Amino acid sequence: MKPKMKATVDSFIESQQFLQENCTVLVAVSGGADSMALLHYLKELKKEKNLTLIALSVDHGLRGNESLEDLQFVQSTCQEWGIEFSGTSVDVTSYKKKHGCGTQQAARSLRYDFFEQQMSLYEADVLALAHHGDDQAETLIMRLMRVTNPAAFQGIPLERVFGKGRIIRPLLCVEKQAILEYCKINQVPFRDDPSNADPVYTRNYIRLNILPLFKEQNPKFHRHAQLLSQRATEDEAFLHTQANSMVENVVKKGIGGREVSFEINEFSGYPIALQRRAFHLILNYLYRKAPNDLSYIHEEQFFDILNREMANARLDFPEGLRLYRSYGTVTFRFGQAGEPYTFELSPGESITLPDGGEISLSTSSDNQKSESAHAFACDIAHVSLPLIIRTRQPGDRMSCKGMEGSKKIKDIFIDQKVPADKRDTWPIVTDHTGRILWLVGLKKSEGKPSEVGTGEWLHVHYKNNETL
């Protein structure tokens, strides 16, 4: 074994506390140089730490007999080295058709499903993967080309929770050349995958054409990339915690997890780094799984709406999610605005509106009008029954209490700063002739077009989980 590489990997494992004595370690082995070197290294470490070591290999069936031969090669090497082996063959093509995904995604899903099953079967502590420093460098270069989210520069994680244990990557501290030298010095056999040399794949192109240019300027670029990844991970963990706290303080979540809202002044009072992360936390909460066509353009449009001086605006996101800005409030909501409605309401009855609100009508001899914003009363002689509960119509006007003449419903909504997305479904109460009695929660008519009364009063009550 090359002393320098052994010292590097040993130090890395100890500093990250990857392996404890007497633990059970599964190793994902494809048959290539990286995974075979990792398996050999752990074999040498087995006695020192009293490890239980099991090699896992998956035949994806993507290269015909070559894929199966890779698995058989790993199996025979494990027999020679005295290492327990578990392998499987998976049907990537069928999985693609069933789930509508690409080849690489299908292969990865099937591979990790097998790994997780084996973690449970062996009650393993860790699954060791053979990603190395050049893989990390390639990943960061690729993300620099495609991604604008700073969180992406966390790169390949050193470790993460997996099943009931953890995934670890002990070789992230070394470059590919060191692994090849290790295999040569220790006579570690391996198989080459010819697809790794095909520049049609973006990662291969970066490996073959771009990474060498970086290494010309900085031979330790793989180490530089790993340090950048670790520091980005540490910074992102802190900012993520702060953004979560911001969301808890500022964002209001609607019933059913399909709607959120916040006040722009509150949201904008936080640093832009937290605003940006809060935006993505909101999307993660609403979508559960972000759609593929969600991009940095949506983020730019979001901040444009947030920072411009405008009363109302709307932004469409994928899969029916919409953002509404109404004066000082931003609301994210799935689905389009509700359909117009019309209901008749007689004394003793109640109706449930499409948004879950309820309006009821009763009579009494009490001639004291309610001053509540959610109740309206008038003498029964002053209206034509049954009442009508409906949404607004073009040209709607009403004569308001304490005001001469009439006013457009549209202007009342504007004066009261009612969100634009709520105006089309806002309940309006009229009598049977169409005269508007009550714009619920906002304005009431005088209710006394004549001096003749019966002494019997109508009482209309509105209630909902949310205040209009």
TrEMBL record:
Enzyme Commission number(s) of this protein: 6.3.4.19
Keywords: ATP-binding, Cytoplasm, Ligase, Nucleotide-binding, tRNA processing
Cellular location(s): Cytoplasm
Domain Lysidine-tRNA(Ile) synthetase C-terminal: 387-460
Domain comment in the entry: The N-terminal region contains the highly conserved SGGXDS motif, predicted to be a P-loop motif involved in ATP binding.
Family: Belongs to the tRNA(Ile)-lysidine synthase family.
Name the UniProt record assigns to this protein: tRNA(Ile)-lysidine synthase
Principal location class: cytoplasm
InterPro entries given in the database record: Lysidine-tRNA-synth_C, Rossmann-like_a/b/a_fold, TilS/TtcA_N, tRNA_Ile_lys_synt, tRNA_Ile_lys_synt_N, tRNA_Ile_lys_synt_subst-bd
Task of the protein: Ligates lysine onto the cytidine present at position 34 of the AUA codon-specific tRNA(Ile) that contains the anticodon CAU, in an ATP-dependent manner. Cytidine is converted to lysidine, thus changing the amino acid specificity of the tRNA from methionine to isoleucine.
Superkingdom of source: Bacteria
GO molecular function: tRNA(Ile)-lysidine synthase activity
CDD domains to which the protein is assigned, alphabetical: TilS_N
Keyword Ion transport on entry: no
